[in-house]
């Protein structure tokens, strides 16, 4: 089974309530407990062995993520983990549904068995394995096609 994770990272036109703490830093990369906010989400995603690609979708300039992505790829190579990360920049701030729709071909590329969509500025104890197990169990029991499970 192959899976993807889509992390919605917002953009520079958002996160104004986070100022003045992050005037020179993207909110999503602001350090929380010793590492960028985004790294906490990615660490939770990496607990899912089937995830082979992480897509970041947002409206930041790509250069904002260059160093982060480079460090991530080096870590994956060192750990011999088959997982890549890619940033997809929206042409304008599209919101969650707009970003997913605009990049639908990239998300579905390689025909993943499933994918997770996570808002990157949320930090919590993500029960991602349990969500996937719940989805798979419901999918097997459902007589109708089950497209999604929402975790709130």
TrEMBL record:
Which superkingdom does the taxonomy of this entry point to?
Eukaryota
> What Gene Ontology molecular-function terms does this entry list?
mannose-1-phosphate guanylyltransferase (GTP) activity
User: Where does the record place the Nucleotidyl transferase domain?
Assistant: 4-140
Spans traversing the lipid bilayer: none
**By its UniProt entry, which InterPro entries does this protein fall under?**
Mannose-1P_guanyltransferase, NTP_transferase_dom, Nucleotide-diphossugar_trans
Name the reaction it catalyses: alpha-D-mannose 1-phosphate + GTP + H(+) = GDP-alpha-D-mannose + diphosphate
Listed PANTHER family: SUGAR-1-PHOSPHATE GUANYL TRANSFERASE
Protein name, entry field:
Unnamed protein product
The protein's organism comes out as Ambrosiozyma monospora (Yeast)
What does the organism's lineage look like at the top? Answer: Eukaryota, Fungi, Dikarya, Ascomycota, Saccharomycotina
């Amino acid at each position: 089974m192959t899976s993807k994770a889509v992390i919605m990272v917002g953009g520079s036109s958002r996160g104004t309530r986070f100022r003045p703490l992050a005037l020179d830093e993207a909110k999503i990369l602001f350090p929380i407990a010793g590492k960028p906010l985004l790294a906490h989400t990615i660490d939770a995603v990496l607990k899912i062995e089937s995830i082979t690609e992480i897509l970041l979708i947002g409206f930041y300039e790509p250069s904002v993520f260059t160093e982060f992505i480079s460090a991530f790829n080096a870590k994956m190579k060192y750990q011999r983990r088959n997982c890549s990360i890619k940033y997809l920049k929206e042409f304008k701030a599209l919101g969650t549904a707009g970003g997913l729709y605009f990049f639908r071909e990239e998300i579905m590329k390689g025909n993943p068995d499933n994918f997770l969509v996570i808002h990157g500025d949320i930090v919590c104890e993500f029960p991602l394995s349990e969500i996937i197990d719940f989805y798979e169990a419901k999918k097997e029991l459902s007589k109708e096609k089950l497209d999604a499970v929402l975790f709130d």
